[in-house]
Amino acid sequence: MGREPTSADERPHALLVDDDVELGELLQDALDEHGIRVELARDGRRGLARALSGEHDLLLLDVMLPGLDGFELLRLVRRKSRVPVIMLTARTAPADQIAGLDAGADDYLPKPFGADVLLARVRAVLRRSGRGMAGPNALEVGRFRLILGAREVLVGGSPVALTDLEYDIFEYLARAAGRVVPRNELSVALFQRPATPFDRALDTHICNLRKKLGEHGEAIATVRSVGYLLRAPDGPGGAG
């Protein structure tokens, strides 16, 4: 399991196992700015030793590592720990993503990725694991206001009743507001599996979410053959 927070530093503590020195330092700085301490390990064997220390709330794990590859490292960690794991890798084939998730990863993020995407994934995994992170308690996008701790959505000050999954979808889109979120990215983040052309579950949840947002539902746009985009509704009349 993850560590118990100490009075010295209550921020979530992540272990990044990646032999890319430049990327590691960039991610360390980016996550630190958003309230997450990051320890770096450059090879699989060192990463395994640190991962089993019980001192971390989250593992960020590359697949192609010297000494011990990421899949084997994850399998060894899972024998003794349920600490949340996000795989970070340039191996983007669906078979590799499925292998990572089957081995016990909580999420799988293909390289290259933006720091904002990684931060959204980290927040989601920490939230599901019950380990919160420092930061604002509310998120505002136009007339939408998300109360993060209570998992509530307000539109123009009025609450909207959403299911847990609908809230997760909306929060993910809100954190990426103005950016098209690919269906595959959203599916892996929410369901821990890549999207398939025949899987309409995500579309159904999006449709229900739009209906519950009423006249503001148009703010969630479908980008054909790509994914979804949340636009900020401006003014009292609806989506901008």
CATH overall fold name of the largest domain? Rossmann fold
Helix content: 25-40%
SS strand fraction: 15-25%
How many strands, which pairing sense, and closed or not: the largest β-sheet?
5 strands, parallel
List keywords for this structure.
single chain, 240 residues, alpha/beta, Rossmann fold, Arc Repressor Mutant, subunit A, 2 domains, 5-stranded parallel β-sheet, 4-stranded antiparallel β-sheet, 8 helices, 12 strands, disordered N terminus, DNA-binding, Sig_transdc_resp-reg_C-effctor, transcription cis-regulatory region binding, two-component regulatory system, transcription
What does this structure look like?
One of its GO terms (molecular function) is transcription cis-regulatory region binding. Pfam families: Response_reg, Trans_reg_C. Helices cover 36% and strands 20% of the residues. With 240 residues, the protein is an alpha/beta fold. The protein folds into two domains: 13-129, Response regulator (Rossmann fold); 138-230, Orthogonal Bundle (Arc Repressor Mutant, subunit A), CATH 1.10.10.10. The protein has a five-stranded parallel sheet with strand order 2-1-3-4-5, sandwiched between helices. Helix 2 (44-51) packs parallel to helix 3 (70-78) and helix 6 (164-175) crosses helix 8 (201-212). It is globular, with a radius of gyration of 18 Å. It starts with 12 loop residues before the first strand and ends in a 10-residue tail after the last strand.
